[in-house]
TrEMBL record:
<comment type="function">
    <text>General (non sugar-specific) component of the phosphoenolpyruvate-dependent sugar phosphotransferase system (sugar PTS). This major carbohydrate active-transport system catalyzes the phosphorylation of incoming sugar substrates concomitantly with their translocation across the cell membrane. Enzyme I transfers the phosphoryl group from phosphoenolpyruvate (PEP) to the phosphoryl carrier protein (HPr).</text>
</comment>
<dbReference type="Pfam" id="PF05524">
    <property type="entry name" value="PEP-utilisers_N"/>
</dbReference>
<keyword id="KW-0808">Transferase</keyword>
<keyword id="KW-0762">Sugar transport</keyword>
<dbReference type="InterPro" id="IPR015813">
    <property type="entry name" value="Pyrv/PenolPyrv_kinase-like_dom"/>
</dbReference>
<feature type="active site" description="Tele-phosphohistidine intermediate">
    <location>
        <position position="190"/>
    </location>
</feature>
<dbReference type="GO" id="GO:0009401">
    <property type="term" value="P:phosphoenolpyruvate-dependent sugar phosphotransferase system"/>
</dbReference>
<dbReference type="GO" id="GO:0016301">
    <property type="term" value="F:kinase activity"/>
</dbReference>
<dbReference type="Pfam" id="PF00391">
    <property type="entry name" value="PEP-utilizers"/>
</dbReference>
<feature type="binding site">
    <location>
        <position position="467"/>
    </location>
    <ligand>
        <name>phosphoenolpyruvate</name>
    </ligand>
</feature>
<dbReference type="InterPro" id="IPR036618">
    <property type="entry name" value="PtsI_HPr-bd_sf"/>
</dbReference>
<feature type="coiled-coil region">
    <location>
        <begin position="34"/>
        <end position="72"/>
    </location>
</feature>
<dbReference type="InterPro" id="IPR018274">
    <property type="entry name" value="PEP_util_AS"/>
</dbReference>
<keyword id="KW-0418">Kinase</keyword>
<feature type="binding site">
    <location>
        <position position="334"/>
    </location>
    <ligand>
        <name>phosphoenolpyruvate</name>
    </ligand>
</feature>
<dbReference type="InterPro" id="IPR040442">
    <property type="entry name" value="Pyrv_kinase-like_dom_sf"/>
</dbReference>
<feature type="active site" description="Proton donor">
    <location>
        <position position="504"/>
    </location>
</feature>
Length: 579
């Protein structure tokens, strides 16, 4: 059997499949005969014990792998399970109303969540998320399943799921998960982006992969072309093992370019930097030859936990990145970009019809000044320890940019008053992700130090095509003439004001796009660490003047296909570097 999806992270994974089951949350109320009530109460208590044992294990593993601080959340969850008010009430409900344990548990949870969510204190409101989390674990135990982590496998598996949240993906252990496939998602959904930075081969948008494949089937996942072969014959396995070996060999050969400058054959130098989601990624960036960080997605620091990271914690993460890379290397820290496909349950925002068009990123930060200023303080303080630059996401008008800059000025004044050091010359830039911003780039360029083009969002907003929806993936691709024209406008606007223009959307690491972007004058290319070396090799084979000519021709073409064809035809090195 052959499954087709979207190539999300290159490389090959060969091994047994593991299907992540979906847990359905619909809970029925069942009345029990009097004789069964005590047994039901005992079943609930046993599930609570199981959940506690699991949490103890996870707590220990997390402390060993990531540190005591990261493990604290699990200690809190254990305390919640020991809370008589909570579990005691659920058991009592089973007895008083002769109902099933699942129903009693979910009713009591909902009641507590409602009470805590409406409290004034933010700390108490955050406790609501704890009740929800532990309740889910108890419900899983009641269903007879174990809620252990995504990495509890004897051998490396290929994981199949309907979807993986970005925080699920962040927790994957490369030695236990050889690759993964999801039914939904596109190339620029955050799970796909994370897979690339973690170098886990991945295919997304398979539609029904997790239903068509069974746990234990042997699969070949080809993350470079987006196909999955299920129970292939011996010869096919051999062919793919050879491809896998060739792929690894090429990855090794490219390491020769690790410390070389990013320079074209005719001597034009650009900056090749990496996108990261956490301080550990900085090591991957450095090992793959990135010259710095062009996008630090700080929201991942806020995710997978149940409270906001403190100023100190943020400061430590930002400084850790500077230290890993070296103090002179640029580190562009993007302020919180929550919303869209990146949820923060403890923020408890109302569900939206169109989360990508909603209350997200800078819109939320300008509203939640407390959160925003805490982050600005941490970034400013970190700027005293490295070449930190600050970047705002999702700006759509000059009013937003000015409001953000005003809060930054206020924060600087506070630090001055407290005598706290920061780099007074720190560059401040913004992402161009919204067509409105691209159109007024000439005005915005006067008030920032740099632009970084976020094509993942810019493409979806320009084409009105959801980046998460595999059915419109033919539209969410960056070679559309409308997108290319916007990119040109942005680069030209920056240069006219003597500012630099970078790109941190996935397009910057796409080998087919690099010649065009070079021709359009892009100064900085920021991408998943795993793409840096192949882009550097490609650049070394390109001639800047020829690419300017190519870009001019591309701007006159009418379809994305014609533009791609022109590039591939003119630059044969692209084919050679694509395995
Ligand atoms: C983008 O939109 O291109 C971008 C880099 O931001 P994110 O992918 O985090 O939305
Ligand atoms: Mg974006």
């Amino acid at each position: 059997m052959l499954l087709k999806g979207i190539a999300a992270a290159s490389g090959y994974a060969i091994g047994p499949a593991f299907i992540m089951e979906e847990h359905h949350t619909e809970i029925e109320r069942r009345e029990l005969p009097a004789g069964e009530v005590e047994a039901e109460a005992a079943r609930l208590q046993a599930a609570v014990q199981q959940a506690m044992a699991e949490l103890e294990q996870i707590k220990e593993k997390t402390a060993a792998k990531l540190g005591e601080h990261e493990a604290e959340i699990f200690a809190t969850h254990i305390l919640v399970l020991q809370d008589e008010e909570f579990i005691g009430q659920a058991v009592q409900k089973v007895r008083d109303e002769s109902v099933n344990a699942e129903f009693a548990m979910s009713e009591v949870t909902q009641m507590l969540v409602d009470i805590f969510s409406s409290m004034d204190s933010e700390y108490m409101r955050e406790r609501a998320a704890d009740f929800r989390d532990v309740s889910k674990r108890v419900l899983t135990a009641l269903s007879g399943q174990s809620g252990t982590s995504l990495n509890d496998f004897e051998e490396a598996v290929v994981l199949f799921a309907h979807d993986l949240t970005p925080s699920d993906t962040a927790q994957l252990d490369r030695s236990k998960v050889a690759g993964f496939a999801t039914n939904i998602g596109g190339r620029t959904s955050h799970s796909a982006i994370m897979a690339r930075s973690m170098e886990i081969p991945a295919v997304v948008g398979t539609q029904n992969g997790s239903e068509a494949v069974k746990t234990g089937d042997i699969v070949i996942l080809d993350g470079s072309s987006g196909i999955i072969l299920v129970n292939p014959d011996e010869d096919t396995i051999k062919t793919y093992q050879e491809k896998q070996a060739k792929y690894m060999k090429r990855q090794e050969a490219m390491k020769l370019y690790k410390d070389k400058p990013s320079i074209t054959a005719d001597g034009h130098e650009v900056e090749l930097v990496s996108n990261i989601g956490n301080p550990q990624d900085a090591l991957g960036a450095r090992n793959n030859g990135a010259e710095g960080v062009g996008l630090y997605r700080t929201e991942f620091l806020y995710m997978g936990r149940d409270n906001f990271p403190s100023e100190e914690e943020q400061f430590n993460s930002y400084v850790a990145v500077c230290e890993t890379l070296g103090a002179e290397k640029p580190v562009v820290i993007r302020t919180l970009d929550i919303g869209g496909d990146k949820e923060l349950p403890y923020l408890e925002l109302p569900k939206e019809m169109n989360p990508f068009l909603g209350y997200r990123a800078i819109r939320l930060c300008l509203d939640r000044k407390d959160l925003f200023k805490t982050q600005l303080r941490a970034i400013l303080r970190a700027s005293a320890h490295g070449n930190v630059k600050l970047m705002y996401p999702m700006i759509s008008s000059i009013v937003e940019l000015r409001a953000a800059n005003e809060l930054l000025a206020e924060t600087k004044a506070e630090l001055d008053a407290e005598g706290i050091a920061y780099n007074k010359e720190m560059e401040v830039g913004m992402m161009i992700e919204v067509p409105a911003a691209a159109i007024i780039a000439d005005q915005l360029a006067k008030e920032v130090d740099f632009f970084s083009i976020g094509t993942n969002d810019l493409v979806q907003y320009t084409m009105a095509a959801d980046r998460m929806n595999e059915n419109v993936s033919h539209l969410t691709q960056p070679f559309n003439p409308a997108v290319i024209r916007l990119i040109k406008m942005v680069i030209d606007a920056a240069h006219k004001e003597g500012k630099w223009a970078g790109m941190c959307g996935e397009m910057a690491g796409n080998l087919k796009a690099v010649p065009l972007l070079l021709g359009l004058g892009l100064d900085e290319f920021s991408m998943s660490a795993s793409s840096v070396l192949s882009v550097r090799v490609l650049l070394s084979r390109l001639n800047r003047e020829e690419m300017k000519q190519l870009a001019e021709e591309a701007l006159n073409l009418e379809t994305a296909e014609e533009i791609q064809y022109l590039i591939v035809d003119r630059v044969p090195a692209i084919q050679e570097l694509t395995i």
